[in-house]
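Bench notes, afternoon.
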Amino acid sequence: MRAPVIDNLQYANWSEKIFRQMRSGGVDAVHVTIAYHESFREMVSNLEVWNRRFEALPHLIFRGSTADDVELARDTNRTAIFFGFQNPSPIGDDIGLVEIVYQLGVRFMQLTYNNQSLLATGCYEEDDTGLTRMGRAVVTEMNRVGLVIDMSHSAERSTLEAIEHSTRPVAITHANPDWWHPALRNKSDTVLRALTNAGGMLGFSLYPHHLAGGTNCTLSQFCEMIAEAASRYGAENLGLGSDLCQDQPDSVVEWMRAGRWTKNVEYGEGSATAPGFPPMPDWFKDNRDWDNIRDGLRDTGFSRDETDGIMGGNWLRFYRHSFGPK
């Protein structure tokens, strides 16, 4: 039986075309973003849209809630869709909503997007004050119900404190090491050692602003970075979180960056003139290109077992230990 392929972060402009590309690429599971700055009710509206997709295209996709759903997807030639928040805005200041959103099918929640939240500090803030009082309480509650803590957009101190406070492994679903490329969103060696020493997972991002060389980053450069990360943190703690934003209009970038908190346009990482999406590298344009990464990992010297783990097996193991109450 083949190893699973799991992409642990996408925010595409979802369509039947993209779901068919997932099937062409053999993608068994995808963690999709259903909230950036949405309120609870707006997030529920996004769930309604997904329910209509599941109803219309059951031969291609279905809602994932447990690790077993990854194997069900693989066995039935479909893709399991796992829900996540890139910001805790849907829970507002109500800790009781942590369990409610888990019951609605959400499996990942970032404690921050780029800004300060009620829980922690985002990576764009100048002053990182760490976890707030509510942040510590929410981490404990997320641990209790089995909602994964995601620190992909959080600042350094906040991330380290979340790892320390959490009694369950934490995820950074879509980022790269800053020793490879010093983007604001990429993570320090200190953070990545703390994360992986505590059993957490790092998903490597393919978003060009997070890549050395941006759109021109080569497959060999990307895989050599993964090899160096494996030597530091262990290949068993590594996976992929492409951050693929396929077919999205530029207006969506403005929503991602600015939401409703500012009247100004946030240009985002790597751009001084416009907030648009940069072109993806030519070796990963969409979900049909996962075999390129698999081949690149093998060419870089990873064993078959290590490659299978990075392509999805490690995320599957993490799902088994992380979703649901202990």
